[in-house]
Amino acid sequence: MNGPRNISEFVHGGEVRDMPDPNRCSDREWAEYVFYYDNAITVIREWWLHVASGYWFIAERHTATDEIIRTYDPSEIYKERVDFSKDAEEKTA
Amino acid sequence: MPFALLKYGLKKDYPFEKDADLPPPTELKSHYDVVIIGGGGHGVATAYYLAKYHGITNVAILEKGYLGGGNTARNTAVIRSNYLTPEGVKFYAASVKLFEGLSNEFDFNIMYSKRGQLTLAHTDAAVRGFRQRAEINKHFGGNTELIDPQQIRELVPTLNMNPSHLPVLAGLWHMDGATARHDAVAWGYAKGATQRGVELHQLTEVTDVIVDNGRVTAIKTNRGTVGCGCAIQAVAGHSSLLAAKAGFRLPILSYPLQAMVTQPVKPFLDPLVSSPSLHCYVQQTSRGELVFGGGSDPYPLYNTRSTMDLKESLLANAVELFPFMANIRLMRQWTGLTDMTSDYSPIMGLSPVENYYLDAGWGTWGFKSTPICGKTMAELVASGGKVPALIKPFALDRFNTFRQVNEMGATAASH
Ligand SMILES: Cc1cc2nc3c(=O)[nH]c(=O)nc-3n(C[C@H](O)[C@H](O)[C@H](O)COP(=O)(O)OP(=O)(O)OC[C@H]3O[C@@H](n4cnc5c(N)ncnc54)[C@H](O)[C@@H]3O)c2cc1C
Predict the structure, then answer these.
(1) Partners of B221 in beta bridges
(2) Residue B175: Cβ within 10 Å count
(3) Phi, psi (rounded to 5 degrees) for A87
(4) How many CA atoms does the CB half-sphere of B158 hold within 13 Å?
């Protein structure tokens, strides 16, 4: 999958960030998560989709030079499934 | 028309402008009542209105590059008020009004040219959206109506009515649509402000914001530190970087926005034409050049490089709209850095730091608002932080209370 390709084959999916627990966090925390960014000049981790193959991956990119430092499979970071159903059950219980 | 122009027109002598230049550079003072960070249109307009209406002249505008060298002189100069929300329409309509009188006010020709803007609907959903925009517009001070394909043919006879197999179904005809010479706007305000005593310091970069007990007390620059009664940041694409120095985050991401211009050709296009479905807008300048623009780049970046991707997609769409343009040569392409909010409305007013005011989140649509921004920001500063009604809806706080002012549909690709 890695290698030089036209940027038009890819869709940007936003920065990789930790989601607060939507059922327990405050409105302010949720707003911070959805709307606010550091938007700094630095290397950031972000989601990208290779459209042709439907493959989501993570890339580390510098926000000023546009240099892509590293790309890898999300499984390197996300080792466990997030189970939303548990929360949902708790809420309705 | 500016009176100076009429006077010169009737005289034999070559026109001579007595105060053509800005005052020569001076040392920075140790303290200013107001420090404005960013010498773009918004910064200098704020200084102008502070001096003119509020008598506040102990003001420094700090600009890291040169006057208007940021987005002010990079934009495609579209002025309009055909937005979707009542808050947006009221605000932009007030700006259009100010623009109309600006050449006379400056006695300096900003080449304000009202030609009307035509936005094309290629889908039923777009027609419905336009109908809503036209009604809201009429109600809140804009001049807009829905027109049919025959009226469009009459307005723009050279337009391909079936571009990319997306037939033109209707148009949003905005009679207030206009352009102006953007650097003239910056110069007009800068001259008016400096003549009243405001200092404009170019090549002066703000490197830090000193906050003491939740209040701004001083601004650090590459030329030393200056104390301030209050500060305003109006730095367009660099908004988040400045806010970080003042100690807070903004709901903003910075994206490059590119535009381009062709060699001049015979006049054939009077209105500004834009197609949201084709992500493209085209207008002809008074010199005959065609100016093209589209949407922002597809991911955040602090870089003003130009890309082949954009040239290709933008030109392909422009040629769909006006097929004979394929024979015209491209002359220049450039990029500016835009600070995008998720609701496509600005962030104006108070910040988490006391006496530190925000004029940010202008994204791809802030040139048209330059006069009203300056006027309302000056009111805010002069009153010591009382937010004028016109800009209340654009408070930073709206993101924390989930009360966005959604202008996305009315903003993208028409700037
Ligand atoms: C290609 C393009 C097309 C556009 N088309 C349109 C259009 O048709 N219509 C419309 O309404 N809007 C348009 N816009 C948007 C519009 O140009 C901007 O929203 C508007 O110019 C913002 O004005 P400003 O004065 O805030 O910013 P700017 O003119 O960018 O001024 C900000 C200034 O701050 C300075 N600065 C930054 N950091 C520092 C620092 N640390 N210290 C000191 N100074 C600093 C910069 O050098 C800059 O001069 C377009 C933008 C682009 C890029």
Answers:
(1) B206, B224
(2) 16
(3) -60, -45
(4) 16
Distance CA B285, CA B78 (A): 11
For B3, other C-beta atoms within 10 Å of its C-beta total 10
* Strand partners of residue B132: none
Mean pLDDT of chain B: 95
Strands B215-221, B59-62: pairing is unpaired
Atom of ligand 1 nearest to the CA of B366: 19
pLDDT confidence of residue B411: 83
Q: How far, in Å, CA of B177 to CA of B133, rounded? A: 14
Tell which residue, B244, B234, B358, has the closest CA to residue A41: B244
Distance CA B91, CA B85 (A): 10
Helix (H, G, I), strand (E, B) or coil at B34: strand
What is the dihedral angle through the alpha carbons of A57, A63, A64, A67, rounded to the nearest 10 degrees?
Answer: -20
Per-residue pLDDT at B184 exceeds 90 = yes
Q: Identify the CA nearest to B47 among candidates B242, B230, B245, B222.
A: B230
Q: Which residues of A touch B (CB under 8 A)?
A: 6-8, 11-12, 27-28, 31-32, 35-41, 46, 63-66
Which H/E stretch holds residue A67? none
Among partner residues B250, B300, B309, which is closest to A63 by beta-carbon distance?
Answer: B300
Helix ranges, B196-307 (H): 239-246
How far apart CA B404 and CA B150 sit, in angstroms, is 37
If we measure between CA atoms, which residue out of B94, B93, B92, B112 comes closest to residue B102? B112
CA angle B342–B343–B349, rounded 5-degree value:
100
- pTM for this structure? 0.95
Q: Per residue in A22-64, pLDDT tens?
A: 889 999 999 999 999 999 999 999 999 999 999 999 999 999 9
Longest dimension (CA), chain B: 64
Q: Are B361 and B345 spatial neighbours (Cβ–Cβ below 8 Å)? A: yes
**Alpha-carbon gap, residue B39 to B56, rounded angstroms:** 17
- B306 CB neighbours in chain A (<8 A) are none
